[in-house]
Amino acid sequence: QDTVLLDQIKLRNLLDTAQERLGRAANPVDSGQSLPLAWRDALRPSQDTGTRLLTTRSLLQRPGIQLDDCLQSFIASEKGVALAVECRSTIRDQGTKVAHDAQSLSRKIYEASVSRHPNPEDIEGLNALLDLVCF
């Protein structure tokens, strides 16, 4: 089951990284805001995927916006863009739940990770963390 959980975290990271690239392409000026968050905020007025797709295309086709070959190929992928613009992303939600919702995971899953930890000096402390989280 660890592989499934790790895959959920990796896929969320993949989605975040794609949204970061889109955010940087659509707004090359650094606003100080997280690029994936800035990207989602730019699409936020609508929850409708079709409208969000249209907004994406207009953001990326504004004058002065230059897309490299990789981004142009990505924009041509309807399914890829649809995943990057979803209002309620299952990929994001699943990855977030695994990464940040300790109470949704069983003690057994954590124990397996603790037992594989490469530094034996940390095991006692990790078990204390496990006792705190999985009471």
Task: Give a description of the structure.
This protein is mostly helical and 135 residues long. It is built from eight helices and no strands. It has helices at 2-26, 35-43, 49-60, 69-75, 78-85, 90-100, 107-116, 123-133. The relative contact order is 0.14. The mean pLDDT is 87.
What is the helix/strand order? Answer: HHHHHHHH
* Count of individual helical segments: 8
Helix content: 55-70%
Which residues form runs of ≥5 with pLDDT under 50? none
Précis, in short:
This protein is mainly α and 135 residues long.
Give the helices and strands, then pairings.
Elements: H1 2-26, H2 35-43, H3 49-60, H4 69-75, H5 78-85, H6 90-100, H7 107-116, H8 123-133
Helix pairs in contact: 1-2, 1-6, 7-8
Jot down its keywords.
135 residues; mainly alpha
